Amino acid sequence: MSSNLALPKSCVYCGKTFIAKTTLTRYCCHSCNSRHYKLKARENKILSALVQNQQTVHSLQSLHSSQPHSLISKNYLCIKDAALLIGVSRWTINRMIKRGDLNIHKFGRKKIIKRSQIDKLFN
Ligand SMILES: [Zn+2]
Question: Are 102 and 113 in contact (CB under 8 A)?
Fold first, then answer.
């Protein structure tokens, strides 16, 4: 970098116009440089904290959507859904089907349970 340069520039931090000796100079003085650096570092810290927060919210949301809450509105459930909804294992559901406590409809290899069948269990 040539030191013969005299570029009028405005400081990135305080906005004061100054004469830069190199094209890379962005601050009028060293203290502006270090202050701006600290500010940036703090902003980055806040930003990364925010991003982390969003990720937490996001993972909570995806966890939520896999929870029984979204199954409540379903009228037809597969074994897995039904198990989740009642809070028992899939094997328990299968046992109930074998005992005849639950009527299912077969669609190919998939077993579908009507929601009303499950409601009946609790009557
Ligand atoms: Zn400055």
Answer: yes
Rounded CA-CA distance 17/103 in Å is 81
| Distance between Cα 1 and ligand 1 center (Å) | 21
Taking the centre of ligand 1 as the mean of its atom positions, its distance from the CA of residue 17, in whole angstroms, is 8
Q: d(Cα 42, Cα 35) in Å, to the nearest integer?
A: 11
What pTM did the predictor assign? 0.43
What are the structural domains of the chain? 7-65 (no CATH), 68-121 (1.10.10)
pLDDT digits (tens, 9 = 90+) for 22-42: 888 999 999 999 999 999 999
How many angstroms does the Cα of residue 50 sit away from the middle of ligand 1? Answer: 29
